[in-house]
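Notebook p. 47: complex prediction with 2-acetamido-2-deoxy-beta-D-glucopyranose.
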Amino acid sequence: MNSILVAFVTLLVFLGTQAHESDALTLKIKHHPFPFPSIPNKASASAPVTRVFSGLFYTHLYVGTPPVKVNLAVDTGSSPTWVQSAHCTDCFQVSLPNFDPNSSFTFQPMPSDHPLCHGTWLAPMGNLCKYGIEYLGNQVTTGDFGLDTFYFTTTSNDQVGQQQRQTQIHNVAFGCGIINRIPDFAGDAHHANPMSGILGLGRDDPTSFLLQLSDITLLKFSYCLPRRVGDEAPLFFGEEAELSGHESQIQTTPIVGPSDESYYLNMTGISLNGSILPIDPKLFISESDYGVAIDSGSQYSTLVDGVYQAVRKAMVSYFVDEWLVQPLNKTKSGMDLCYDITDIAAAAATTIGGGEGPGSQLFSVAPPMVFEFDGARLELKEETTFQLFDEFKEFCLMMGASKDFSGNIFGAFQQFNHRFVYDVGASKLSFAPERC
Ligand SMILES: *[C@@H]1O[C@H](CO)[C@@H](O)[C@H](O)[C@H]1NC(C)=O
Ligand SMILES: *[C@@H]1O[C@H](CO)[C@@H](O)[C@H](O)[C@H]1NC(C)=O
Ligand SMILES: *[C@@H]1O[C@H](CO)[C@@H](O)[C@H](O)[C@H]1NC(C)=O
Ligand SMILES: *[C@@H]1O[C@H](CO)[C@@H](O)[C@H](O)[C@H]1NC(C)=O
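Predicted complex, structure tokens below:
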């Protein structure tokens, strides 16, 4: 598994390697005034978010005329939105047809003098505007930026009836990926990859959905990530991005760092079974960062070594004291801290009198944990700390040490079953439990 957070690198090299423009597209360029997103009459939009077998989440939208369905990974760790183009030369397998800009009557290539065609990921090349992005894990995508109509729907029903096409927005800027090396979008023996691209919800580039469509989003969005593969829960933008009810359960913490950075949170501590772990608070802020980055596009949390080792040590010690079990010395699931499922079943049986087999959610052998933030606490239970890998007979802590990113990432697994509201204008993140 690889996280998807952007590695903040401009890929002009990659841009250079694919300079053979699609000449046909140049013909369609319109000149000033620049097309900008046209806004529907309400400041809100929503789309369902679904969990994929790989631990990533996607939402589906329709793009173009006639509308074509695209499933986009929901990524708060990056900003540009892109879909794999039907004209890709380096393509990943996807269960939906690729978007063909040439087949959409409303598609327009982004002209090189468009105001959005500069900055970290976009650059003019000839008459056109090209993009290049690198994500964690050496994942890259490059291609052409364009403008087209996006439709938000409220259900996952495949029929695009007028009613389901709730919100229609013209001239949304997005990338059509030509070279796409995204191992995170690989299928496996049992599953085809359903994802066609990425919906960038970051705030560090003006092409972000959030910023580009600020008249609709009001710089606010919310999501609830379901734990079960295939389940879905709505992503809201704008007025509907709210937490209602259970006022007492609402936790709020500032989003820290400059406004053109990732969403960093001021983490102040981690507790396990009621005790604060001995972690130097400085470790939550690594050299170049402002705190812990919250990222829906990373499957689970990755922590800098000092933080991760403290968590690991406390967890190992808890399992020894409470259940007399030692972790596996070698794991098959790819996670670092795992227990043999037989040991865990035996431990669980001693307290709850046996029960159902592996695969059920009955074990609650994991200690409660809390991620403490400035002004907020997120309570983690077994469903947000451990996962059972049936095929490997392993029960694993879904956290790890940072590898190709030097900071701490608060990933999706620890966010399950909470609604997170990003009020980017007010630099606040609020959350509350929700079964989603
Ligand atoms: C787009 O369509 C035109 C004519 O319909 C065709 O000549 C051109 O090759 C197509 N472009 C691409 C990139 O396939
Ligand atoms: C966990 O906390 C409970 C409640 O405070 C305590 O009874 C138990 O001994 C603790 N377990 C371990 C292994 O520290
Ligand atoms: C892991 O290795 C250590 C030291 O070699 C050994 O004592 C321990 O029993 C091993 N644990 C398991 C679960 O095999
Ligand atoms: C982080 O939170 C702590 C505890 O509330 C506070 O003392 C500190 O100033 C905060 N840091 C930033 C950068 O906001």
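Notes: The first helix runs from residue 12 to 17. The pocket of 2-acetamido-2-deoxy-beta-D-glucopyranose (ligand 1) is lined by residues 22, 24, 87, 102 (CB under 6 Å).
Next step: compare against the earlier run before touching the bench.
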